[in-house]
C-alpha cells in the first residue's frame, strides 16, 4: 500500500515539475507592461474601400504570383470593419497596450500630404484610439509597417530616393498632429532590415526589387535612417512637450550564437549582429554605421571595381542628426541562429551576404514551428537582450514582437503556451540576473493574419480567425487564457515567489 502511494506522490510532483519545466517563478516588476501587436496590411482588409489608396502590398498580391497560397490582404481579418469587436477582445484579454500600425494610403491615398486627406481613414484610427482609451489601453503606433503608398513607389522609387525623407516626415507630422495626444509610443519604421534586405535583395517582401543586390539595400537603409531621424526631430521639437510620448524605430534580429567557443566563431557572431542589428542601432546610438560594415563593404567594393564603397556615407550633419534618435530600443525577436566563421566569399557580383561572409545555420535538435526560420530557442532572447544592453549603453528596451506560428486550425496551442512561458522566463532572467532594462513586451500576434509571402499558411495569433468564413469569426486559442493569466498576475507559473 505504501509504495504505490509514494509513487503517486512522486508522479504528481514530477508532472507539476514538468509542466513548469524551467519556467522562472519570479514576478515581473509591477510597472512592466504587456501587450499584443498587429500591422495594418496583415489584419485590416478593406483594401479599396472608403477612399483608401493602393499600396505596394496591394500591388504585389494582385499582380504577382509571389504569395504561397496566392492569397491577398484584400479582406484579411477584416479588422477595418470589425475593429469594435477586436477592441472588445483586447479589453477582455486585459492588455496594457496595443501595438498597431497605420495604413499610410488609408490616410493619404497618394502618400503625399498635398494629395487629399482621407477623412474616413482618419476617422477609422480615431475610433480605434477612442475604443482603446475607453478601456484604459495604451496605444503604441507604428507609422510604417511595410505598406508604402504605391504612388510613392511609382513616382520616385520609394525608399531608394531621398525624396522619401520629406514625404515621410510630412506624413509622420500629420499623424502626430491628428493622433499624438492619445499615443504613448510611436514607432517610425518596423524592421528596416527586412524592408531593405528582403524588399531590395532577396525579394521576399514588397516591392521585391532584386536588380541591384549589394547596392539597393544599403541605399534603402540610408534613406530610411534619415527619414526616421527627421520624424524623430519633428516629434522632439514640436510634439513631445505637449504630447508626452516616446518615439523610436523597431529593429529585428535573431540571437546569433557562436557555433563553437573558437574565437573565430565569436567574431563571426559579432559581425553578423553588427551587420543586422548594428546596421541601424549603431547610427541611432552613435551616429554612424558599425566600423566593421564600413571597412568590409569599402574593401570589397573597391576590389569589385567600384570607385567608392557601396555603403553610402553620412555627412557630419547627418551623423549629428541621426545620433540619439531613440527614446527606447524596440526589439522584434523570434529565434536564434548559429554563426560560424568562414573564409571571405570570393569577389564577384556584389551581395550583402558576401559582405558578411559568415555561415549561418540552425541546430537540428531545436523545436520547430510552422515557419521554417522560427525555431524555439528561449535562451536566445536573454542573450540578445544582454548584448544590446552591453553594446548600446544600457538603453530601455521594449520587446515589440515575439511569438510562435502554427499551421492553423489548432485551438489547443500548447506549444505556443510553452513558447511564451519559456521566452518570458528568459526575459525575467535578463531583467533580474543581467540587469537589462526591459520595460514592456508585446506578443505577436493578437490575431491570425496575412503572413506576407506565406499568405495564410502560418498563423501567429493568440486568437484564431476563420478565413474561409465571410464573417471572419475569431476564436481564442488556449494561449489566450495563459497570456491573460500572466497579465493579471505578472507571473508565469501557478504560484510565484
Ligand atoms: C516580423 N525573419 O517580421 C514582422 O514584423 C511581422 O509583420 C511578421 O508577421 C512577423 O515578424 C512574423 O514573421 C519578420 O526572417 C520577418 O527572421 C522575417 C523574419 C523575422 C521577423
List keywords for this structure.
binds 4-nitrophenyl beta-D-glucopyranoside; 17 helices; alpha/beta; three-stranded mixed beta sheet; 13% strand; 497 residues
Major sheet attributes: 8 strands, parallel, barrel
Question: How many domains, as an integer?
Answer: 1
Number of helices: 17
Order of helices and strands: HEHHHEHHEHHEHHEEHHHEEHEHEHEEEH
Rounded to an integer in angstroms, the radius of gyration calculated over CA atoms is 23 Å
Question: Which CATH class is shown?
Answer: Alpha Beta
Q: Regions with pLDDT < 50 over 5+ consecutive residues? A: 15-20
Structure, explained:
This protein is an alpha/beta fold and 497 residues long. It has 17 helices and 13 strands. It has a single domain (5-12, 34-489), classed as Glycosidases (TIM Barrel). The longest helix is centred in the middle third of the chain and has 28 residues, at 216-243. The chain is globular, with a radius of gyration of 23 Å. Residues 15-20 have low confidence and may be disordered. Bound molecules: 4-nitrophenyl beta-D-glucopyranoside. 4-nitrophenyl beta-D-glucopyranoside (PNW) is lined by residues 39, 42, 190-191, 194, 252, 332, 334, 373, 401, 444, 451, 460.
